[in-house]
Amino acid sequence: MVPPAMVRCNRGLGRWFWFCVGIIVSVTAIAVVASGEAPWVMALTGLGVAALFLLARALLPPLTLSPAERVIRTRGRVVPYAAVAAVDFPPPDKAGVWAGFLGDDGRRLARLAIDETLMAPATVEQWAAVQQLVALGAAPGPASHAVAGQPLGGRRRPAGRSRPMGPAEAVAVLDAQVAWCAAGNRPGHRHAPVRALLGRVALR
């Protein structure tokens, strides 16, 4: 799949957001029945939902992948694809499933919400853009940053967390992930191809 010229990420509201909203609404309904003072309870509910939405937006900064320009855009920052040395897929945690774009020094340049976060899961277009980014780095030439299977130079990988994966292997998994999502499957499902990437660093 060829990704669009511009792919916006970290958007929408995911099932965990609506799960939290459901809890707030349920607690509100119980409070209304118990107290009989609906106006102030409903006001607190509205404030709670608004606070949850603002928290979600604050925790997930804007992220746009631009395959046409070969750059990553975040809040007030433009990062060329050539500056991305690897894509980190840490193991899932309480905050959900994520992917991080790393520079040569191992620092995270941007972060992509994959699934089980407050935002909507990553779309097939987003996966196609990530696949292209890794594939471009794997191609011979100045864009290539690492030898397949070798860790980044000077990067200190967290012990027991992220293991290196060669770009060719990563591209194959990402190809399968694109096909998986194109078939209408949830990107973070336990049978999704991306599960093979979790706990790995896909080198470019």
UniProtKB/TrEMBL annotation:
<keyword id="KW-0812">Transmembrane</keyword>
<feature type="transmembrane region" description="Helical">
    <location>
        <begin position="16"/>
        <end position="34"/>
    </location>
</feature>
<feature type="transmembrane region" description="Helical">
    <location>
        <begin position="40"/>
        <end position="60"/>
    </location>
</feature>
<keyword id="KW-0472">Membrane</keyword>
<protein>
    <submittedName>
        <fullName>Uncharacterized protein</fullName>
    </submittedName>
</protein>
<feature type="region of interest" description="Disordered">
    <location>
        <begin position="143"/>
        <end position="166"/>
    </location>
</feature>
<keyword id="KW-1133">Transmembrane helix</keyword>
